Amino acid sequence: MSTEPTRTSATGSEPMPDIEALxxxxxxxxxxxxxxxxxxxxxxxxxxxxxxLAETIRSGAxxxxxxxVLDELGAPEEIAAAAAAESGTPVRTSGERVYDVATPLxxxxxxxxxxxLGWVAGVAMLWNGPRWNTRQKWIGTLIWPVITLLFLAxxxxxxxxxxxxxxxxxxxxxxxxxxxxxxxxxxxQQP
Length: 191
Hints:
By secondary structure, the protein is an all-alpha fold.
């Protein structure tokens, strides 16, 4: 018995043969793995692999032959990585993605967890990170000190208690905006 999930055809009435399901799964994985490629390179890669599969797995082929052809091609992730290397498109590793997300989070939340040292750790990560330009690094560095100065100014003002909620809301909005700004900047930047 096959461990493949039961699928239906485009009409939804009849099950797809196992071979079609294998090819469909393979091409779906290739589509997901190749999202970082330039559009033209990605389209050409998908067209070439689809044509190759249509040529090598004829309508009369059995499931064993289909699996053999797919194994010979290699994992879709490996094909996408090879196409990226060939086209000169760098591929970001999962460790780099974690760093890209962890840096703004530590910058934002580090000061809450370990005052001052948490912020310093976030700033160090930000300035050592390759994804942000100098302007973005300065914005990320200065947001906490600016919010802290605004908070202290509100405390020192005679009616500080009346101004305090507005400063806190403004400060939180600034921190969230900083987080979004740095995450988007990292996502746009190629390694």
